[in-house]
Amino acid sequence: MGKRVALVLAGCGVFDGSEIHEASAALVHLSRGGAEVKIFAPNIEQRDVVNHLKGSPSEEKRNVLVESARLARGNIQDLAELKADEFDAVIFPGGFGVAKNLCSWAVDGKNCTVNEHVNSTLQAFHSAKKPIGLCCISPVLAAKVFPGCEVTVGQDKNVDGRFPDAETASAIAELGCKHICKNVNESHVDKANKIVTTCAFMCKAPLHEIFDGIGTMVQEVLKLA
């Protein structure tokens, strides 16, 4: 019987929601791994809406759950309804929506607050010793909620211009967590906390390398589940 995995989204689109390629990659690798997946998102208003063609803010108002339903092909539930005892693992793709809608990292950095349902979901899986997978900027959720944990967002220096957000690693360290440097096609497993992370689009890399890195994260999550 396949593992039961919850996937938590933050909207639809890299600049104000979930990164679509990361969400899709996670779903493909979960399917290949024989997992049974259910998708969730918080029923809240987005912090902002970005015109992805122009890269500029829009005056629109959008709902995170409604927008996430685009990625879920309509098959999605309110995050408030997620029960950790019904699943073997949880995975959070990245995208600016994580830092804007699931927490306030985009505005407050390491002093951010985490959405109450995101926080309770992370705490529930952690308390049950069930694995948590995170990619791109999503590892900051674990860094904020679980002081002392180990995560990766890639490298802690902007190596060859490929890691423009390398300062995120320093902010993670300031939260009392350990940042582990990894390449884009790798993931890191914090065995003590059952947290698996990979950098994805935190690295400027070809799409197939990002896809492969997310694959290693999903595989490690399923092994731990």
UniProtKB/TrEMBL annotation:
SUPFAM superfamilies: Class I glutamine amidotransferase-like. InterPro entries: Class_I_gatase-like (IPR029062). Gene3D superfamilies: 3.40.50.880. This is GAL3A protein. It comes from Glareola pratincola. The lineage of its organism: Eukaryota, Metazoa, Chordata, Craniata, Vertebrata. The gene is Gatd3a_2.
